[in-house]
Amino acid sequence: MIRMDMSSGRIIIATQDLAFFAEICATLSAESGVGAVINASTLDGVANKIGFGRLNVIIFDVDSPLGISPQSLRSLQAKYSPLIILVGKAITAAQVYTMQGIRDFVFKRKNNARAFVNDIMVKVRERTQPVLAKAKPALGGGALSLNAHIGVNDKVVVIASSTGGTDALEKVFAVLPADCPPTLVVQHMPSGFTKLFADRLNNIYPMTIKEAENGDYALRGQILIAPADQHMSAFLKGGKLAVNCFIGERIHAVMPAADVLFESLVPIMKGSAVGVVLTGMGADGARGLYKMHAVGAKTIVQDAATSVVYGMPKVAYEMGAADYQLPIGEIGKKIMELAAK
Prior knowledge:
Number of helices: 11
CATH architecture of the largest domain: 3-Layer(aba) Sandwich
Shape: elongated
Helix content: 25-40%
CATH class of the largest domain: Alpha Beta
Largest sheet: 7 strands, parallel
Strand order of the largest sheet: 8-9-7-6-12-13-14
């Protein structure tokens, strides 16, 4: 990838939401190497404000009714080679732009400009700075240490989340160490966004985080996120735990469904698992958590006070599937405590 200089580069915020612009403008302007931070609310306005000789970053607010089509934004990208970052409250609003190859997305963080700008600058630095090798467990085949693989007597962590789950997952991951227990995640997201989500988190946290691929092993120091529009189940591959990603019928109207993953672990891992259900609408994960609990797995659900939607964890709790009901800030620590037993 060609690295570009951000010194005195321009950041153009394409939005009609002046409060949003004001909220992040000062924080962005204070970032090292950032030049002008400019607002533009039309395609022509964006194009007219692009500078030359430096990287231009366009923060495109998909929540704002700009009337800029995905095709016109892609044409602008082809002509001027800016870094275009889609931002919004929900990835569903940005999904149409991914068909034009614009795949960088950052969730807005309510009343937290500093954290939001940090997410933006991670994307910018990926383009402007050399990629530094991180001390992470190796992925793939061949050179993997056998100690990284797990079998039926080792602990695995499985997590289900939906509405509000992306922020909840980050709060959990922030507590986990680089050599965390192998962790398998089902987060309900539209097609095309689970890899973006995994890649972004992989740049933030010390463990390896990736979108799961069929046949991936569950490894210490690694978090696998089920791909959108595919279920993920667990199976034994040469006596070691691995995952199967496949297209099937929707369950609870979703795919991937956490129940598929959770229930696949019941005959394999029995009590050697920690199951977690975080914030989310509906009931996905509750039945699977109950079955895990019945064979001796330790189980956790997020409490009502810290859930964006107290749906999935509520159903699981009322079903009797949970050993612990905890606020999100305590769940990562409890996972590590239970995985160590």
